[in-house]
Amino acid sequence: MPIGQAHEACLNLTMSMKRHFSHPSPLPFSPHQGVLGIDFGTSNSAIAWASSAVDARLLPLEGASTALPTALFYNAEDRSTHFGRDAIAQYLSGTEGRLMRSLKSLLGSPLLQEQTVVNGQQLSFQDIISRFLLELRTRAHAQMMAVSGPDTPAPTRVVMGRPVHFVDDDTERDQLAEATLLQTALAAGFEQVSFQLEPIAAALDYERRVSQETLVLVADIGGGTSDFTVVRLGPERVQHAASLQAKGDDRHRADDILATTGVHIGGTDFDQKLNLEEVMPLLGYRHTDARGREVPSTVFFDLATWHMINWRYSPKAVREAQDLRTSYADAALHSRLMTVLTERLGHRNANEVELAKIQSSRTGGRATLDLDLIERGLQAHISADAMAQYLRDPLSRIVACAQDCVALAGISADKLDAVYLTGGSSALTPFQDALRAGFPGVPLVEGDLFGGVASGLACSGAAAQA
Questions:
Q1: Are 37 and 201 in contact (CB under 8 A)?
Q2: Which of the chain's ends, N or C, has fewer CB atoms near its CB within 10 Å?
């Protein structure tokens, strides 16, 4: 598969099953009577516009695609900034510069305020997130002007999605993460910013397509988090909420949401685990020296984690890796590690892992990782059986979180009408297999995996301002 196609493959993975619930409309935008919904994701982001609680349209962000990889590339050769698939392609083509991905994972972390030099400028990672949100707003505005004319004002109202937990078991850091995301949205030019839980937004999107009362477990499996909501949905409940709102009652749908849970595990964790199991051993992970001591593992965990890879390219980190030579009994393994660091191949390797994960999930067979740039002829492989084995623990934790949600709702699983899937990582075959085992007999319903949350956020915002 050509370089830079990982995200396109991820989007295509579910296209044959995906139902297109939200379609761009030719009707003009009315910025004073609508709101944007932004699903700022760990791996992909999407935007929708809604002028009512039941009418949302996804906005194209990169060509015809409504899903934009959450990635920035700062081109050091011409000092330009690139986003999405373009950013990833620039980096993987060998252009000199800095690639930033999985920035959402830094929310709530002290690393968010760390300064880094980008094209001669000192920037914090919070600044970089603001720059990405500004680009989303700019692209949304361009779509609005294309439909409604050049005098259409830029959107100022936005509902931002947030996971149930930015940080597990740490309320203070979780609140800090939301406050920081608020600051980044304001810095990007938005004036009225509110938040909605992502699984609730997905439920509201799903509700636009049900014709009778339905009890649903919403499973939102993204790049960084897995969130669940048990909710009662249906046309009569929409009408009841509208009636409450007309009377000034701000309870909205609180009575319909029976439980919400979440865990900080998602698609990037799957990629990290596969990277550690199949690629990092080729660089010395779990390798022992002549006295039976393992090579220190921190460098391998960082190289397998998207948002930590850049830290391993610093001169200090490279020197530390060079000093590990005495910990290796096999000099060839250490040489490969140094090649990855000096040639800055960490992101390329992570991209190969993501591609192989998608291919193996789609075909049920074995996928090959091309590591030829590390060493001629070097390869790794991911099979469907191995992937299921490697991911057994994180998937069991995710399914346990889903089961906890149903238990908190005070119902038994057999009372569910469906498990509604959204988020790109919910398409992974081992996850769906684990979910079926955890909820036997409950139908799995795939929604718009990459746009459903954004649509639900926009509808939520439109309902609130009605």
A1: yes
A2: C
Instruction: Identify the pLDDT of residue 70.
Output: 95
Structure-token pair, residue 65: 């695609």
pLDDT in tens, 168-188: 778 899 999 999 999 999 999
Say if residue 464's pLDDT is above 80. Answer: no
CA distance 356 to 3: 13
Q: Across residues 202-226, what is the average pLDDT? A: 88
Tell me, what's the pLDDT at 102?
86
- Is residue 307 pLDDT above 80, yes or no? yes
pLDDT score at 7? 38
Alpha carbon separation from 375 to 11, 44, 71, 276, 344 (Å, rounded): 30, 31, 27, 18, 14
Predicted confidence (pLDDT) at residue 296 exceeds the cutoff of 90: yes
Angstrom distance (rounded) from CA 149 to CA 142: 10
The torsion angles phi and psi of 366, rounded to 5 degrees, stand at -105, 135
Question: What is the C-alpha to C-alpha distance for residues 387 and 267, in angstroms, rounded to an integer?
Answer: 13
Within-domain flag for 324 = yes
Q: What is the pLDDT of residues 250-274, one digit of tens each?
A: 445 567 889 999 999 999 999 999 9
In the block, residue with structure tokens 């934790």: 397
Residue 360 lies in a domain: yes
Range of the domain at 275: 268-390
Question: Which residues fall within 8 angstroms of residue 307, CB to CB, at 6 or more apart?
Answer: 100, 101, 102, 103, 105, 106
Domain total of the chain:
1
Long-range Cβ contact pairs of 305-310 (< 8 A, separation 24 or more)? 305/102, 305/268, 305/272, 306/101, 306/102, 306/105, 306/268, 306/271, 306/347, 306/350, 307/100, 307/101, 307/102, 307/103, 307/105, 307/106, 309/346, 309/347, 309/350, 310/98, 310/99, 310/100, 310/116
Helix (H, G, I), strand (E, B) or coil at 167: coil
Look up tokens 């909820």; give the residue. Answer: 439
Buried b (16+ CB within 10 A) or exposed e, 153-174: eebebbbbbbbbbbbeeeeebb
User: Distance between CA atoms of 262 and 165, rounded to whole angstroms?
Assistant: 6
The neighbouring-strand residues paired with 317 are: none
Q: Is residue 335 part of a domain?
A: yes
Helices (H), 304-451: 315-322, 331-342, 346-363, 384-390, 392-408, 429-438
Q: Kindly report the pTM of this predicted structure.
A: 0.81
Among candidates 144, 3, 184, which has minimal Cα distance to 86? 3
Mean pLDDT of 282-295: 92
Instruction: Tell whether 114 is covered by a domain.
Output: no
